[in-house]
Design a protein that fits this description.
Length: 363
């Protein structure tokens, strides 16, 4: 296997894939694959309950929050959040820190009034605006943030506490698609956390939504029933058939993470991985990262070659060295290394070694 720096769907722990392969034809003596099980069978119910319990433990999700296993991806949530949370309010507030939160606020405009409480678009999405400068509207249904901007490489290093700006009553909604489970999070600071699974959790097709119970039951009458958070919660994510195989793989990833010491332990490794890469980039005049160092993402590291005419050679030679999917997003250009939980430190070391060697040969 190669070191896969894909932003998503992304690398999964090899041991998880091996175990899934071993269990593919016959899960625990049932004689069937998990793919072939009824979602209501006792076998699948046990898989589901274990996955839910493990995720709750890993993220220390308080008892007054429900964990929903949904479909539609994070992009569907951009519509489902206003549909579920607006209630009798007219609008919501958005902090725009990159391509993904920008997409979220645009989608929300189809369903409600949108107030941009802060944006870093003018400076090229390279930082997180100070909370003291967030201009919340008078009575928003929620405040939306994307706490890790996968494309721009900008990460909130904190869980926003709106009490600090006197607005503790406003629920914070966070798109955590690309850094969930990579660092400790204080779930109690949020009303809703959501994310697609295909980066740090498992295969595409599964969307995790963690919602505070008092926010359930506000869905708009036009919200599809399959996406009404309350209905999904009341039916333990089985109102319709959930993405059973993706939930099973996610459950194996949760077990893998628990066996490796949980979120606190992986956070230490992620900090080390990111530091190795950023430290190398910063000491080099050949490579550059343009994000405010205080808000650099530990998961997605965009970087540029000073001489962009070398981009194609960099990509071809890195791939030949077994380091794949390093091309930056088309809207940003350059390179991007996504170093999620399943990327070992050895993968980052191999990348840094390659970058050093490439610089020596071309600098
Ligand atoms: N939000 C963020 C932060 C993402 O990284 C992605 C990645 O693809 C999305 C939303 C879109 O998610 P999906 O394709 O699962 O709808």
């Amino acid at each position: 296997r190669v070191f896969n720096f894909s932003p998503g769907p992304a690398a999964l722990p090899e041991s998880v894939l091996r175990r899934a392969a071993e269990e593919m034809l016959d899960w625990h003596g049932t004689g069937v694959s998990v793919m072939e099980m009824s979602h209501r069978s006792p076998a699948f119910q046990s898989i589901y309950e274990q996955a839910e319990a493990d995720l709750r433990e890993l993220l220390a999700v308080p008892p007054n929050y429900r964990i929903l296993f949904m479909q539609g991806g994070a992009i569907a949530e951009n519509a489902l959040v206003p549909m579920n949370l607006l209630g009798d309010k007219r609008g919501a507030d958005y902090i725009v820190t990159g391509a993904w939160s920008n997409k979220s606020q645009k989608e929300a405009r189809r369903y409600c009034e949108v107030n941009i409480a802060a944006s870093t678009e003018a400076s090229g999405f390279n930082t997180v605006p100070a909370m003291q400068d967030w201009q919340l509207s008078a009575d928003p249904a929620y405040l939306f943030v994307c706490t890790n901007e996968t494309i721009d490489g900008v990460e909130f290093g904190f869980d926003p506490d709106l009490r600090e700006i006197g607005r503790g009553e406003v629920p914070v909604v966070a798109d955590v698609s690309s850094h969930i489970l990579s660092r400790k999070v204080d779930v109690s600071r949020y009303g809703v956390l959501f994310g697609g699974a295909q980066k740090n959790i498992g295969p595409a097709g599964l969307t995790i939504v963690i919602v505070r119970e008092d926010l359930l039951g506000r869905a708009h009458k036009d919200c599809p029933t399959a996406f009404d958070y309350k209905l999904v919660a009341d039916n333990n994510s089985m109102y319709n058939t959930p993405p059973t195989y993706a939930i099973y793989i996610a459950g194996l990833v949760f077990q893998w993470l628990r066996a490796h010491g949980g979120v606190e332990s992986i956070e230490g490794i992620n900090r080390e991985k990111a530091a190795r890469l950023y430290d190398f980039i910063d000491q080099s005049a050949f490579y550059e990262n343009r994000v405010d160092p205080r808000y650099r993402s530990r998961m997605n590291v965009p970087f540029f070659l000073a001489d962009e005419s070398l981009n194609a050679a960099f990509l071809a030679q890195s791939a030949a060295a077994g380091l794949v999917q390093l091309k930056g997003h088309k809207s940003v250009g350059g390179m991007r290394a996504s170093i999620y939980n399943a990327m070992p430190l050895a993968g980052v070391e191999a990348l840094v070694d390659f970058m050093r060697d490439f610089e020596r040969r071309n600098g």
